[in-house]
Amino acid sequence: YYTPLDAIKDIPVIIFKKNLLFLILIIFGFIAFNNLAINEQFNFLGENSTIENIEGSFYDFVLEEPEAISNETKDIEKSIFKYTNDQRKKRGLNELIWDDKLADIAREHSLDMVTNDFLDHINLMGENPTDRATRHKYPIKKYLGGRTYSIGIAENIGSMPTGNVEGIGYIYSDVDSIGKALVDSWMASSGHRENILNPEYDVIGVGVAFDGQYYVATQNFK
Predict the structure, then answer these.
(1) What average pLDDT score do residues 62-88 get?
(2) Average pLDDT, the chain
């Protein structure tokens, strides 16, 4: 999982901006994996500097809707969305609202991981989730009331096959079973669970891509 700075408390926003002070604390969290199913979480606290708009063909493949992205993977995204909100409702938390632009950012990252064969919150261009949102001109600042605000995009990523999965059991190949298995695996990890159940988040985007064996999923929260 990747969690941004939750809040900057009791500090006037104008002073925070003026002084350009920021604290970055990187905590590598729990990484659980076996030979069939992989989840990764990453904890990041701090404000990220804005990156330059990236031009070129590195991400052009995202617009081509390759086989890795299909109606099936988009249905799995909605299944993940449903089971994520089910977990929140069980605990009396607000339901997350689907954000199309955040879903596009998440889907791009899942497709990038499938295309370039990696599973990480940092892509091959060195961008973390907040950097990727900034490149897409997605607002990363959220005012929490008073003089507090949060900066950044939180993220869960995971990879799930179908069939017999060690440590999980049998995963059927329908979209509902795949989506539920991914959410269940995140809920079994404290860091992923914290992102799913964070009461300060109110929007989510989910992106899924398929590499022929694994369904690679990204959840982005704000």
Answers:
(1) 88
(2) 80
| Dihedral sign (CA 59, 118, 123, 200) | positive
Q: Are 178 and 115 in contact (CB under 8 A)?
A: no
Spatial distance between the Cα atoms of 121 and 2, rounded to a whole number of angstroms: 7
Q: Name the residue type at position 177.
A: S
pTM: 0.74
13-47+69-221: what CATH class? alpha beta
> Is the Cβ–Cβ distance between 207 and 104 less than 8 Å?
yes
Segments making up each domain of the chain, as ranges: 13-47+69-221
Q: What are phi and psi of 112, to 5 degrees?
A: -60, -45
CA-to-CA dists, residue 61 to 53, 56, 66, 139, angstroms: 17, 11, 8, 24
**How far is residue 194's CA from residue 59's CA, in Å, rounded to a whole number?**
30
Give per-residue pLDDT as tens, 49-61: 333 333 444 444 4
DSSP 97: E
**pLDDT tens-digit series, residues 76-96:** 999 999 999 999 999 999 999
